[in-house]
């Protein structure tokens, strides 16, 4: 059985429609709404919601947003006239069921399973928020830092092996996206 694009919601809102690179994999069950840009070889897995109705969301090349994740942004307010877009860089891993809201995830950052990132947060390059952690509003995870807990706190710096493992995960998800895409189109696996 194969899925079709009718299994995916792509909707314009406020005059802005999602822009998805032709090489990106979007799994069935996803809902992508508004001012969303998804880069080359990115993957958005089953039943994710990416809702850019009040600000923009940018998802970089080879980034993967795993099953059941919600990505949103925050609208401009008198106290924050620019609001909070959600900017996700290249080669980012976002684990299953994460909540990513109005924040910046720099290149090669990692968000663990079920983690929550709130408005105004930043995860710098190669930074990591552990599974189940909650990064409260405005916090910054430095480059190569690991933060854990609810609320999240700095635990330690990541070594080269951890960084390499994260990037191997990125490469694996690019390949897995190609495999799932071919299977859903009814093509034989290579």
Quick summary of this structure?
It contains one helix and 20 strands.
Give an overview of the whole structure:
The chain is mostly beta strands and 190 residues long. It has a single domain (5-184), classed as UDP N-Acetylglucosamine Acyltransferase, domain 1 (3 Solenoid), CATH 2.160.10. It contains one helix and 20 strands. It has one helix at residues 160-184, and strands spanning 9-11, 19-20, 25-26, 31-38, 43-44, 49-59, 64-65, 70-72, 86-88, 93-94, 99-101, 104-105, 110-111, 116-117, 122-123, 128-129, 134-135, 140-141, 145-148, 153-157. The strands form two sheets. Strands 1, 2, 4, 6, 8, 9, 11, 12, 14, 15, 17 and 18 form a twelve-stranded parallel beta sheet that branches. An eight-stranded mixed beta sheet has the order 3-5-7-10-13-16-19-20. A hairpin with a 4-residue loop joins strand 19 and strand 20. It is globular and about 45 Å long. It starts with 8 loop residues before the first strand and ends in a 6-residue tail after the last helix.
What do the pLDDT scores average to? 95
Shape: globular
Measured on Cα atoms, how large is the radius of gyration? 16 Å
* Sequence stretches where pLDDT stays below 50 over 5 or more residues: none
- In total, the number of strands is 20
CATH homology superfamily name? Hexapeptide repeat proteins
Straight-line N-to-C gap: 18 Å
**Order of helix and strand elements from N to C terminus:** EEEEEEEEEEEEEEEEEEEEH
CATH hierarchy: architecture: 3 Solenoid
The CATH class assignment is Mainly Beta
CATH topology term = UDP N-Acetylglucosamine Acyltransferase, domain 1
